[in-house]
Amino acid sequence: MKGILAIVLGLCLTIPMVSLSGCIETNNTRTEENAQNTSETTQTGSDVVKVDGKDMDTLIKNYMEYRNDYYEKNKELFRKLSEEGQKPKVLFITCSDSRVVPSIITKSDPGDLFVLRNIGNFVPPHESVLNYSSTASAIEYAVSVLKVEHIIVCGHSQCGACAALYDDIPDTPEMMGVNTWLKVAEPVKEHALKEVGKEDKEKLAEFTEKTSIKFQIENLMTYPGVKKRVESGDLSIHGWYFKIESGEVEYYNKNKDEFVPLDKFHQE
Ligand SMILES: [Zn+2]
Q1: Ligand 1 centroid vs 178 CA: distance in angstroms?
Q2: Within the chain, which residue ranges are assigned CATH 3.40.1050.10?
Q3: How do 236-243 and 248-253 pair as beta strands?
Q4: How much distance in Å is there from the Cα of 119 to the middle of ligand 1?
Q5: Rounded to two decimals, what is the model's pTM?
Q6: Residue 7, helix vs strand vs coil
């Protein structure tokens, strides 16, 4: 995201007047103590990226554990994927939120999921593809080249992007990307305000998060490649809602127009 100076692993994106669930911290919000702990500084153009030493030590330690444990146990899988290339069956579209981890939720291995993450798991409609080509290219590549058989749009509770739709984000160069991106979900916001109003904040938040999943599925169908493969029966689209507080997933049942526990998927 342009103009944001420091990126650290953590939980929150703190910006004036709004909080998104993310992991970005601006230089001017870092304390002196943090700055003293900084062990690594990388110059990128005019921006300085600082990584906290303690966080890096943890990452490196975990990396070594992965090399010695997971990689050793799955060497053959990595060799096969490297030689034969990827053939994922699922495009998993979800939020950048650090609390939503597709491979953990679905207990997937490398090669299983083609993952597209962005702020809010939004899918811009195809007519705006030239403004949002990063997201569109991942969808087109997954559907028309990799020929995935399922697309899962996975929203989640406490979504900072959905909450930010109702915040007054400053119109500054630092937030230009966020402001532009959130416009994708403007129709979601309008619908939610009309249906539930803003009195009950909790109800509005969940309604927005779930409605957004339905809207993004509709937007997916505006992509010619998606529409073609859905109509030929080669592709299915699913809406999931991950509840951070309980770790549960609900899926969108189109016939009932409601979200139902995922373990009931085959009983409906
Ligand atoms: Zn989110």
Answers
A1: 13
A2: 86-267
A3: antiparallel
A4: 6
A5: 0.81
A6: strand
pLDDT exceeds cutoff 60 at 35: no
pLDDT at residue 19 tops 50: no
| Residues listed for the chain | 268
Q: Which of 159, 132, 148 is nearest to 237 (CA)?
A: 148
Give the distance (Å) from ligand 1 centre to CA of residue 58.
25
**How far, in Å, from the CA of 22 to the mean position of ligand 1?**
8
Query: How far apart are the CA of 100 and the centre of ligand 1, in A?
Result: 8
From ligand 1's centre to the CA of 96, what distance in Å? 6
Q: What architecture does CATH give domain 86-267?
A: 3-Layer(aba) Sandwich (3.40)
Give the torsion sign (CA, 165, 167, 169, 175): negative
Q: Give distance in angstroms: CA of 115 to centre of ligand 1.
A: 15
Q: Are 106 and 114 in contact (CB under 8 A)?
A: no
Give residue 66's Cα distance to chain centre.
24
Q: What is the rounded CA–CA span in Å between residue 181 and residue 162?
A: 12
pLDDT tens-digit map of 201-246: 999 999 999 999 999 999 999 999 999 999 999 999 999 999 999 9
Residue 59 CA to ligand 1 center (angstroms) comes to: 23
Residue 190: Cβ-neighbour burial (10 angstroms; 0-12, 13-18, 19+): exposed
Q: What is the DSSP letter of 266?
A: G
240 CA to middle of ligand 1, Å?
13
The answer to whether 67 and 60 have CB atoms below 8 angstroms apart is no
The CA 162 to ligand 1 mean position distance, Å, reads 7
Q: How confident is the model at residue 55 (pLDDT cuts 50, 70, 90)?
A: confident
